[in-house]
Amino acid sequence: MKKIRIIGYGWLGERIASSLSGKYVLSATTTTENKADQLNNKGIHTVIASFPDYQLTEPYSQWSDIENIDVLIITVHISEKRCCVSSLYNRIQNLSSFIGDFKGQMFLMSSTGVYPDFPKEFTEEDIPWENVPGERMLRNKYPQLNILRLGGLMGDNRLLKNYNISNLDHAVNHIHYADISGIISEMIEKKTQSKLYNVTAPIHPAKSQVINAQKNITEDEELEVKGKKVLSSKLVSELNYVFQYPDPRTFHL
């Protein structure tokens, strides 16, 4: 049974772990002692780790037994939108010290936020990983890294109707967490390496259409959907992946 480690057991990390549980041996990191205790009691070996955006006096010790791990899934935020490039460099250096010279299969949960807010259909070729500092720093150190640019994370308690939303006639670029887990599982089984994929549901309704579906409001009129659409057609073509939730209007069902 393959051994998988998840760096960052937050909202998404928890759901990925739940999907992979039973098929793989799981371990994880979290940022609090209380949560680490809870996960250890569930049989998920967990250590406390966070990756600050400043240079540490003493570098992180390498995560024990990392050389015997088959798959590493990174869900912590690696984005220059959250910090300047120098701070981002420090964060990635701290992360790299923790995982060392890892040679196994790797996944980085990136974001479709790398694409500008233009009314256009975006593919991975529009902004290659070399042009995104966080992706570039990690891929240069770990050439085998798979980069998954995730759309807005939805499912369970995350519903668009619960948020204060603007530009209601603009398209959504959402993804159900079950499909993220499904795509990772597919790539693990196929031993996929060094890929860059957009991960969004293939149907892009307007925000208002998603909200109305969640409120059980019937729409009679056709709506011109505006804004950007981030396409996952490369993923579908190369993995032959069939989405469990292709339409964000059904994420709540």
TrEMBL record:
<protein>
    <submittedName>
        <fullName>Uncharacterized protein</fullName>
    </submittedName>
</protein>
<dbReference type="InterPro" id="IPR036291">
    <property type="entry name" value="NAD(P)-bd_dom_sf"/>
</dbReference>
